[in-house]
From TrEMBL:
Name under which the protein is recorded: Acetylornithine aminotransferase
Gene source species: Alishewanella agri BL06
Reported cofactor(s): pyridoxal 5'-phosphate
Cofactor note: Binds 1 pyridoxal phosphate per subunit.
Lineage: Bacteria, Pseudomonadati, Pseudomonadota, Gammaproteobacteria, Alteromonadales
Name of the encoding gene: argD
Binding residues annotated for pyridoxal 5'-phosphate, in chain numbering: 107-108, 140, 225-228, 283
Other comments on record: May also have succinyldiaminopimelate aminotransferase activity, thus carrying out the corresponding step in lysine biosynthesis.
Length: 405
């Protein structure tokens, strides 16, 4: 019986595979941008489950959608379709460049589908020679073996044997480095509009426009990984809308489900046609529960009130960080857009992002890192000003703790 199990952090070490090293605390309840642990201690959440909890914890629209659907239908398999999946797909198509949608469970799965589709499209339309994928150093596209190889961080892909081939890495925001690699063998360029795990590095408008032009010139597909930037995180439904650069394939997850696992790959009718029946699939992809929650998330987020609120919240974050930095001189700049921001540590504190992350938790604040030099913030899109300012008070206490140690 579950009542007999003593749930402590020590139980993790006893029963879980040791690929994670979670904090000592165990959260048990969340509401909005606040979380409580087993001891009843309250935290402000600036991490958002790593840019996932787009509407905070237990948002009524998502709770209602889940409870309502839970009484109707949970799972069917893809031998049958379902109403929530079709409604969600229609809304995504109507609000983006896309004409077709494929559903899965995560960002990695969405990217896996995108890369397979790009390869199949190239094979069908141009032949076997056109199979190279160009990605970027410091990029991150998931943890499957294909996606982690396309990702530009060898430490994640080394040590598992031979990697998938025909994957090249250019330098982000350096168009000349792409020109040096691209050829008639290139089937796709894969890019994050803002590099997330790589350090919250926004793509330059000229760079992304240049990628689009190179793809057109070499008859390659532009794949935008919007797993972290999508669904309102930058103040637009998808970040590509900030740049006026339209991809051929877009991947989405994280904020799409507001905490419920769901992913999507969006593309055009012509490109989608190359994933014929049987060429790809997902047991749980497009299940009614996930799609009902994601539909509620899209309906709630894709409004002028929420999207404009994201940009207003960004300004409050920046003002607070600027005030903290004026007192403690720890950051060289704050990068990012909307509710995806990175405070870059200066030379004096370089390599110590984890120290700030740990100190923040001690002060009652959940934050993130993006590499060793960047403290990352990816909170709820609808976090209140009061929650932001209270969280920043706690973050200032953490900064004081680190700088005075």
């Amino acid at each position: 019986m579950t009542a007999d199990i003593q749930v402590t952090r020590a139980l993790f070490d006893e029963v879980m595979v040791p690929n994670y090293a979670p904090a000592k605390l165990i959260p048990v309840k969340g509401q909005g941008a606040r979380v409580w642990d087993q001891e009843g201690r309250e935290y402000i959440d600036f991490a958002g489950g790593i840019a996932v909890s787009s509407l905070g914890h237990c948002h009524p629209a998502l709770v209602n959608a889940l409870k309502t659907q839970a009484d109707k239908l949970w799972h069917l398999s893809n031998v049958l379709t379902n109403e929530p999946a079709l409604r969600l797909a229609k809304k995504l198509v109507d609000q983006t460049f896309a004409e077709k949608v494929y559903f899965c469970n995560s960002g990695a799965e969405a990217n896996e589908a995108a890369f397979k589709l790009a390869r199949r499209w190239a094979l069908d339309t141009h032949g076997e020679h056109k199979n190279e994928i160009i990605s970027f150093a410091k990029s991150f596209h998931g943890r499957t073996f294909f996606t982690v190889t396309v990702g530009g961080q060898a430490s994640y892909s080394d040590g598992f044997g031979p990697k998938p081939g025909a994957v090249l890495h250019a330098e982000f925001n350096n168009l000349d480095s792409v020109k040096a690699l691209i050829s008639d063998k290139t089937c796709a360029i894969v890019v994050e509009p803002i590099q997330g795990e790589g350090g919250i590095i926004p793509g330059d408008a000229e760079f992304l426009t240049g990628l689009r032009q190179l793809c057109d010139q070499y008859k390659a597909l532009l794949v935008m990984d919007e797993v972290q930037t999508g669904v309102g995180r930058t103040g637009k439904l998808y970040a590509y809308m900030n740049y006026g650069v339209t991809p051929d394939i877009l991947t989405s997850a994280k904020s799409l489900g507001g905490g419920f696992p769901v992913g999507a790959m969006l593309t055009t009718t012509a490109i989608a046609a190359h994933l014929k029946v049987g060429t790809h699939g997902s047991t749980y992809g497009g299940n009614p529960l996930a799609c009902a929650v994601a539909e509620a998330a899209i309906d709630t987020i894709n409004t002028p009130e929420v999207l404009n609120g994201v940009l207003k919240n960004e300004q409050i974050f920046r003002e607070c960080l600027q005030a903290i930095n004026a007192k403690y001189q720890v950051f060289s700049e704050v990068r990012g857009k909307g509710m995806l921001l990175g405070a870059v540590l200066n030379e004096k504190y370089k390599g110590r992002s984890r120290d700030f992350f740990l100190a923040a938790a001690e002060q009652g604040l959940f934050a993130l890192v993006a590499g060793t030099d960047v403290v990352r913030f990816a909170p709820s899109l609808v976090i209140t000003e009061e929650e932001i300012r209270e969280g920043m008070r706690r973050f200032e206490a953490a900064v004081q703790q680190v700088t005075s140690a």
